[in-house]
Amino acid sequence: MISTSIKLTFEEYLRQYPQGEGKFELIHGEFVKVEAIRAHKNVARFLVKAFDRESERLKLDYIVDKDIIIRTLTKEEQERGRIPDVSVVKGSIWNANVTTYGAIIEPLELAVEVTSTNWDDDYIDKLDEYERLGIQEYWIVDYLAIASRNYLGNPKVPTVFVYNLIDGKYEVKSFREQDIITSAIFPELKLTVAHILDASGIGKIGY
Questions:
Q1: Which residues have C-beta within 8 Å of that of residue 41, sequence separation ≥ 6?
Q2: Tens digit of each residue's pLDDT (9 = 90 or more) over 50-88
Q3: Peptide bond before 155: cis, by omega within 30 degrees of 0?
Q4: Could you tell me the end-to-end alpha-carbon distance of the chain, in angstroms, rounded to an integer?
Q5: Which end of the chain is more exposed for a tag (fewer CB within 10 A), N or C?
Q6: What is the C-alpha to C-alpha distance for residues 38 and 41, in angstroms, rounded to an integer?
């Protein structure tokens, strides 16, 4: 974490962003470094490619990227800067100002978070923030089955949770193993949890 004596606003976070030193989110007014293992990056890269191919195939007006900074608000209206592992944004929004850096304040069409040791951030904080922002679809890809049994059941198995925004609130569906993940943003996508596990390089995990 890079500490600052004065809490940063979102605009200050963008201006002072430590370029070339990794990825940092804005949490509680401070820079917090976001680091991921290679398997995590493999999953994100796989989904970027899958979404991008589908967008091109269907000629959808989407930009797919893994480094888009978004501005969110907590229920206390505290600004946060988030960098989803995968972001899908309308091309019309992205290209409205191509001379600026990769940060947007408008809702994404789809955000993906690949879980890691701070899994509760994805399941609780980001879930709330993304719903408040109005992100239409939010995936939590728990390929390591790392969350608690309250979410994953017993035994814990790798699961993908897909949250869709309905009347301002998220409704969730869960997918495991050979389930085809259904997406409102990419309705013809043929992707299973097993495909994602294979892409991670780790393989099937259950315990």
A1: none
A2: 999 999 999 999 999 998 999 999 999 999 999 999 999
A3: yes
A4: 33
A5: C
A6: 5
Strand 86-90 to 30-34 pairing: unpaired
Does the CA dihedral 116-119-121-127 come out positive or negative?
positive
Chain segment 30-52, per-residue pLDDT in tens = 999 999 999 999 999 999 999 99
* Residue 162 · residue 143 · CB < 8 Å: no
Q: In what order do the strands lie in the sheet with 79-82?
A: 30-34, 23-27, 79-82, 69-73, 103-104
Domain ranges of the chain: 36-200
For residue 3, name the pLDDT band (cuts at 50, 70, 90).
Answer: very low
Quote the tokens at residue 45. Answer: 């890269």
CATH superfamily of 36-200: tt1808, chain A (3.90.1570.10)
